[in-house]
């Protein structure tokens, strides 16, 4: 696994926070339902911990040291899903919102070395690995509890250079909290060949995603009904847990590769930003490390080869 540099020239702006939106009801397939077919209600947006499994212990005391210097170019070697010395299958990371170096050994890792200009909203490090069972992702950072309409967002192209999925400029779903944040009304400029097939986001820390979660989890743009109606991947299919200062999530192969066939070799590419409620503004931190003065211009992607 490795990541390479792409050059893109453009200018984009910085900003702050505002606004929120009504949450739609969804059927079991993750698609929006109208009022006539509404069933069970979505988890409450007012309770930041409402999606947390009572049996899951989250370490809210973990603090990231703002003075710690992180190497933006750090990438771990590809350990795959096997221990080469012993020939045994290694254990995958535990999706509990607490990131450990040992459990993420073998992951590709990128970090930001600049201090955030949005107090309380931080991106520190992103780790990702492809294993036989799927894509594992960890984001170290947090969202300010006093600005719950901000979101950590990650866009994923599951086969860089192919045309399936959605261009970021086409996204216009405003009927869910993270759907709105993932629909950039002030578009990102991305490298040629990057089209988003999937995205992950959260606007709540210390939370475990539950069911079709409006505030934390994955969205599928390949199976979207339209650019204004994203397909919601349930937490049962793709679990996410956020602690106080980090989130971990897992996307199974059956979801990651749905409808692709045997598309190998390929490059899975991704990038992360913090965005305000409608995706129009981002602070200066970028993952992978990019130009902090132009966070809406994406010239560097984290690339996973297989």
What does this protein look like?
The chain has 306 residues and is mainly beta. It has one domain. It is 3% helix and 24% strand. The protein contains two helices and 14 strands. The strands form three sheets. Strands 3-4-5-12-11-8 form a six-stranded antiparallel beta sheet. Strands 10-9-7-6-13-14 form a six-stranded antiparallel beta sheet. The longest helix is centred in the middle third of the chain and has 6 residues, at 177-182. It is globular, with a radius of gyration of 18 Å. The termini are close together. Residues 1-24 and 33-86 have low confidence and may be disordered.
Task: Give me the secondary-structure topology.
Elements: E1 25-26, E2 32-33, E3 108-111, E4 122-131, E5 134-142, E6 151-157, H1 177-182, E7 198-202, E8 207-208, E9 216-220, E10 231-233, E11 240-242, E12 246-252, H2 253-256, E13 267-275, E14 302-305
Antiparallel strand pairs: 1-2, 3-4, 4-5, 5-12, 6-7, 6-13, 7-9, 8-11, 9-10, 11-12, 13-14
Question: What characteristics describe this protein?
Answer:
globular, 24% strand, single chain, six-stranded antiparallel sheet, 306 residues
**Roughly what percent helix?**
under 10%
Low-confidence stretches: 1-24, 33-86
As a whole number of angstroms, the C-alpha radius of gyration is 18 Å
Overall number of domains: 1
Spatial separation of the terminal alpha carbons: 8 Å
Q: What is the number of helices?
A: 2
The ordered string of helix (H) and strand (E) elements is EEEEEEHEEEEEEHEE
In round numbers, the mean pLDDT is: 78
Structural class from helices and strands? mainly beta
> What is the molecular shape?
globular
Q: Oligomeric form of this entry?
A: single chain
Assess the beta-strand content as a share of residues: 15-25%
Largest sheet: 6 strands, antiparallel
Give me the side-by-side strand order of the main sheet: 3-4-5-12-11-8
How many DSSP E strands?
14
């Amino acid at each position: 696994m490795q990541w390479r540099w792409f050059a893109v020239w453009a200018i984009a702006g910085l900003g702050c926070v505002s606004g929120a939106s009504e949450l739609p009801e969804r059927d079991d397939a993750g698609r929006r339902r109208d009022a006539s077919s509404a069933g069970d209600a979505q988890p409450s947006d007012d309770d930041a911990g409402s999606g947390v499994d009572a049996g899951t212990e989250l370490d809210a005391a973990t603090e990231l040291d703002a003075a710690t210097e992180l190497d933006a170019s750090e990438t771990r070697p590809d350990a795959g899903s096997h221990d080469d010395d012993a020939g045994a299958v290694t254990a995958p990371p535990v999706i509990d919102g607490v990131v450990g170096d040992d459990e993420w050994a073998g992951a590709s890792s990128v970090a930001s070395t600049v201090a955030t200009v949005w107090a309380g909203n931080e991106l520190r490090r992103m780790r990702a690995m492809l294993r036989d069972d799927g894509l594992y992702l960890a984001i170290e950072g947090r969202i300010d509890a006093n600005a719950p309409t901000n979101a950590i967002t990650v866009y994923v192209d599951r086969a860089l250079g192919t045309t399936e999925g959605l261009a970021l400029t086409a996204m216009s779903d405003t009927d869910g909290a993270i759907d709105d944040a993932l629909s950039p009304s002030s578009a990102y400029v991305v490298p040629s060949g990057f089209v988003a097939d999937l995205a992950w986001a959260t606007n709540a820390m210390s939370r475990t995603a539950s069911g079709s979660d409006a505030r934390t989890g994955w969205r599928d743009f390949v199976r979207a009904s339209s650019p204004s109606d994203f397909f919601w991947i349930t937490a049962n299919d793709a679990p996410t847990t956020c602690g106080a200062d980090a989130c971990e999530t897992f996307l199974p192969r059956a979801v990651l590769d749905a409808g692709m066939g045997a598309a190998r070799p390929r490059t899975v590419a991704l990038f992360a930003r913090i965005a305000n409620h409608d995706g129009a503004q981002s602070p200066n931190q970028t993952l992978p490390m990019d130009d902090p003065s132009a966070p809406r211009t994406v010239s560097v992607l984290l690339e996973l080869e297989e």
